[in-house]
Write a structure and sequence with these properties.
Elements (H helix, E strand, L loop, with lengths): L16 E2 L4 E4 L2 E5 H13 L2 H7 L4 H15 L4 E3 L7 E3 L1 H28 L5 E2 L2
GO molecular function, one term: DNA-binding transcription factor activity
Pfam families: HTH_1 (PF00126)
InterPro entries: LysR_HTH_N, Molybdate_resp_trans_reg, WH-like_DNA-bd_sf, WH_DNA-bd_sf
Length: 129
């Protein structure tokens, strides 16, 4: 294997940035990934599926479809209407849990991949910020 430390300026002035996209899927398609995580976090932040979708540059229908696909596959609700219908949506306890667990898992996998990159690649990598 090549030693990344002995390879000078392979990629120019700056080190390349490592980016990863990991997701879970079933026969029915995507179950959960970074996009679903961002959508759930946006719902929690905005208190509205419409505002969450707009903030992410997607249609309400697209956002609703992604949430429904995951809810149906898991057999659990991710979001629910607030007690006051005008208050919009918030995450269920399960929705919060899956978002937190996926985020933690993703960060650990990413950190591990970055820590091992020097063993396989002829250049150093920077972490995505």
């Amino acid at each position: 294997m090549l030693d990344a430390r002995s390879t000078k300026n392979v990629c120019g002035k700056n080190n390349p940035t490592m980016r990863m996209h990991l997701w879970f899927e079933t026969e029915g398609g995507v179950l959960f990934g970074l996009g679903r995580l961002q959508l759930l976090m946006s719902v929690e932040e905005h208190g509205s599926l419409k505002a969450a979708a707009e903030a992410l540059g997607m249609s309400y229908r697209g956002a609703w479809g992604k949430i429904k696909t995951t809810e149906e596959a898991l057999g659990r609700k991710l979001i629910e209407r607030a007690s006051n219908r005008r208050a919009g949506y918030h995450l269920t306890a399960f929705g919060k849990s899956i978002a937190q667990c996926y985020d933690k898992w993703y960060r650990e996998v990413e950190a591990f991949a970055l820590s091992k990159s020097h063993e396989f690649l002829p250049f150093p990598l920077d972490q995505y910020k």
